[in-house]
Amino acid sequence: PECNIFTHLPPEDFQIVRNRMIDLILATDMKMHFEMVSKFRLRRNSPDFCRTNDDDVWMLLRMCIKGGDLSHGLLSWDSHVSWSYRAASEFYEQGDLELAQ
């Protein structure tokens, strides 16, 4: 509780922040990778793409999060392998938790 940076937010604003955080986390799901990248390319090349449009801004933020999530492939081989191992371990742990429920 003492580390909760959202305690000052009214419930409605907290829900907005929570939903947006969930949206950004789900943007890292590889199941939707190619569809998301295709939609971004189409939208980015559109003449009405606008950096002040909320939908366009959120699409760009999703792509930034996705880029950060996948960027370990650009590191040295040892670092890349280390991060890949961490990700795989996390996936297996999550699978084990879901099986246990």
Question: What does this protein structure show overall?
Answer:
The chain contains 4 helices and no strands. The protein is an all-alpha fold and 101 residues long. The protein has a domain of 63 residues. The longest helix is centred in the C-terminal third of the chain and has 24 residues. The radius of gyration is 17 Å and the shape is extended.
DSSP strand content: under 5%
Q: What structural class is derived from the secondary structure elements?
A: mainly alpha
Helix content: 55-70%
Taking all residues together, what is the mean pLDDT?
A: 94
Number of strands: 0
Question: How many distinct helices?
Answer: 4
Distance between the termini: 27 Å
Cα Rg: 17 Å
Gross morphology is extended
Segments where pLDDT lies below 50 for 5+ residues? Answer: none
SSE order, one letter for each helix or strand: HHHH
Mind summarizing the main beta sheet?
none
What brief labels describe this structure?
101 residues; mainly alpha; single chain; extended
Please give a quick description of this structure.
The protein has helices at residues 11-26, 33-44, 54-70, 77-100. The protein is mostly helical and 101 residues long.
Q: What topology emerges from the helices and strands here?
A:
Elements (H helix, E strand, L loop, with lengths): L10 H16 L6 H12 L9 H17 L6 H24 L1
Helix pairs in contact: 2-3
